[in-house]
Amino acid sequence: MKFFKYLLLLSLTLLVIGLLYVSIQSGNYEVSRTKLMKYPVYSVFNIVNDLKTWEKWGPWHDEDSTIMVTYADKTVGVGASNRWTSKDGSGSIKTVSIIENKRIVQEIRFGDNEPSDVLWDFEKIAEGTKVTWTMKDDKAPFIFKVFSTLSGGWENMLGPMLDKGLNNLDEVVKSQPLKYSLGEVKIIENQDKIFLGFPYKMKIDYAEIQKVFADAMPKVIDYAIQSGLKYAEFTPGALYHKWDQIKGETEFHIGILIEKNIKPREDMEIIKVTGGKNVMITKCGNYNEGDYEAHMAIDTYLKVNNLISKWPIYELYVNDPTQVKQEDIQTDIYYPLQ
């Protein structure tokens, strides 16, 4: 009988020692894994940015078939979120900020615990895209410290999961067809042009900008037709006066480049686009696919040739996306030169 008492006492002592040991372990961790993927940065970024794709590559789905995911109305960009339940508990994830094709910042919450940070960094390199996935916290809950201790540390606990997720992501990106093509970057001479459109000042939020385009463009085109213009006498486009990625602010007009002047509606403006030399590129593919790469191609051309551009830069949407194949939707991008 004494033996069992001593055994129980020993077990309790070891348990207390174990709990004390865990309690003094740091709840501060930052674990990262990086993988080179031989695909354009937009291909990788767009998949990670869409939470509905995570079921295809998230490493936890391979480990737990009981996971059930519920999506919010928004699943792409800032504010996108979902929740899940499984035999091991519940959780949620939310996207809190993005820098297009460069960084995604998210918060992930397990149960009722405080959220941890999830960071994604995308770097365009000659071979493709360098992707870094990071999980970090400075106040991890006690139960997480228990798992970390049993695993031999935060790196051993989280690192293999991040590696597996990046490998799965690489396979998903590989299965996606390239959705755009870029023409040659070149210098052309333009005449003075007239632009009619709605002015906007807003935060850089790609989902919101898309909504603005979807609302404004049909209104401008309808007004042009009602004002007597034929389709051949105008080209839809956007005129950008500011794009400050650091402050997250942009100013632009959505409208049409017109061959002859018409009186604008009260909420529209007429802008004269001064002629001269422009660096331009043609991108073929769906809107928002390859736009970053097209602008970066011009940026590289400007640097290599010691050229300086000036505002406004503009895009023209040359053909009707409902009348051509997705890969043939044409966008011409112009950077006026100083």
TrEMBL record:
Q: Name one Pfam family in it.
A: GyrI-like
Q: Which residues form the GyrI-like small molecule binding domain?
A: 185-337
Question: Where in the numbering of this chain does the Activator of Hsp90 ATPase homologue 1/2-like C-terminal domain appear?
Answer: 39-158
- InterPro entries, from UniProt? ASHA1/2-like_C, GyrI-like, Reg_factor_effector_dom_sf, START-like_dom_sf
What family does the Swiss-Prot or TrEMBL record give for this protein?
Answer: Belongs to the AHA1 family.
Please state what the protein is called.
Effector-binding domain-containing protein
Q: Which organism is it from?
A: Tenacibaculum adriaticum
Provide the organism lineage as a comma list.
Answer: Bacteria, Pseudomonadati, Bacteroidota, Flavobacteriia, Flavobacteriales
